Amino acid sequence: MGFACEPRVSNNTCSANAIQMSALGSTSTPYPIMRYRWNCGQAGNPDCMKEGITPSFSYIRDGFNGMTFMYTVTLTVEDDHGNQNTATERVTVVQRY
């Protein structure tokens, strides 16, 4: 579970409340994974699209204090031959500000 907050930095996110994601368990046979592309699932969030194995997402205020929202985080991996696969995970974000 993560917490959203009132944006406090120039890119409209709250880095202190970031949710850490991980693709360390991702495997590819016989070709190695070359790209990890993430989408945090919060439309309109400028911090939502990231690349890398372990990015952090900051969710922006999207309701009243104490409200809970579910977002679907999507990971797309691509190997060095252009093959792709996608996985999703639901995260819970509580509005705290």
User: Which architecture would the CATH scheme give at its second level?
Assistant: Sandwich
Structural class: mainly beta
Largest sheet: 5 strands, mixed
In DSSP terms (H or I, runs of 4 or more residues), the helix count works out at: 0
The run of helices and strands is EEEEEEE
Strand order of the largest sheet: 1-7-6-3-4
The CATH homologous superfamily corresponds to: Immunoglobulins
Overall number of structural domains = 1
Which descriptor suits the 3D outline?
Answer: elongated
Helix content: under 10%
CATH C-level name = Mainly Beta
Strand content: 35-45%
Total E-strand runs:
7
Measured distance between first and last alpha carbons:
16 Å
- Average residue pLDDT: 86
Supply Rg. 15 Å
In CATH, the topology is named Immunoglobulin-like
State the low-pLDDT regions, or none: none
Can you walk me through this structure?
With 97 residues, the chain is an all-beta fold. It has one domain: Immunoglobulin-like (Sandwich). It is built from no helices and seven strands. The strands form two sheets. Strands 1-7-6-3-4 form a five-stranded mixed sheet, with no helix packed on it. The chain has a two-stranded antiparallel ribbon with strand order 2-5.
Labels describing this entry:
97 residues, mainly beta, 0% helix
Question: Secondary-structure blueprint of this entry?
Answer:
Blueprint: E1 2-4, E2 19-20, E3 33-39, E4 49-51, E5 56-57, E6 68-79, E7 84-95
Parallel strand pairs: 1-7
Antiparallel strand pairs: 2-5, 3-4, 3-6, 6-7
